[in-house]
Amino acid sequence: MFLVKRDNFNKTYIIKGLMIALFFSAFIYLAHFNLESKLFNTILGLLGIYFVLISKKQTLFFTGFFIGLFWFYWVGNSFVYYDLAYLKPIVPFAFALVYGFLFFLISIVEFTFYKAAILFIFSYIHPFGFNWFVPDLVFINSYFKADKPSFAIVLISLFLFINFKTKWKVFALLPLLYIYTNSGEYIDNPKLKISMPQINVNQDRKWAKDNLSNVIDENFRLIEEAIKEKKDLIILPETAFPIVLNKDEFVLTRLFELSKHINIVVGALYYEDNNYYNTTYYFNKMKAKIAKKVVLVPFGEKIPLPKFMVDFINNTFYNGAQDYKEAKTPTDFEINGIKFRNAICYEATSETLFKNLDGIKYMIATSNNAWFTPSIEPTLQNLLLKYYAKRYDITILHSVNGSENGIIRP
Asked: In what order do the strands lie in the sheet with 338-344?
């Protein structure tokens, strides 16, 4: 009898945790299936946070567990291309456990204000440097502003709502009027004729030696087409040339020649001093500028662990491959008198790339999402780019392989 009751008890925690995680994750899936609604996103976001603040730690463990799955189930997809397909189901489970533990910590102290404070702090905590869980992102397509001060106001309002007597509860929500917004996007395009051709090369074919010449030829064709269309600039995605470009004299020479007629921004690898860099190359009038990636993908481009563990993981799982090397500071390009901050995939969703902009109003971001598609990863990335575009008042030109290109405006 006791075991039956205990089993039902555990199921209740699981079901409650699942429902809260659904409230917290709905905005991603509504965006993914083009069913966005500011009203639904606002209500569901408030409900998700409200139930986090009033729930017990057992429920919150399962809330975090399911959030880890709903937000990041796609991370395991990339391991297939490292011949580590057996890790595909294990990686999402690891994410689920990490976020389950973090949400469990929210309720160690059964005090609403403590829970609210810890949830706010979580917006600054990034396990192993992975920063794609941003709690305030839930309001990115809502009637509320999506930023840290506004998130703090939401938490304070809900804390007051929970603790006020019934007849005063409505007054607890009045601060939410301060963060209400219904403004549209500010349309701001650089005064350039820009080509961002849509590229969809499957990841299993992108680096295949027998397909390399096809990929290179197609890139040249796209550049030549942009020249015929009298474009000022063409932007091709991250590692559009899947080679160490500064070591390939033939491709370099051809790009220099084409740069007489058009500005070219393209992703490729760069080798220097026994280190490999994920980089963006900018070609203009027979000259090149190199932008090395600053923020590397945890466990994808760099293992964020002590060196002895890094060596063990690389030797065991990645056939002895070495981590990429990162640059210390972001790189800016000046194209026809307009300054652009460069960002490569993951780093375009990092605070680091938005520091010291010095009036720069545009960012060129390049990505290769073929690692993870089909999944919600491109949608979550796009929502994060929108979040940072609004926070820092910057227009992001996003050129992607494997998912849709876009211009993300403040």
From this structure: 332-335, 338-344, 362-368, 395-401, 406-408
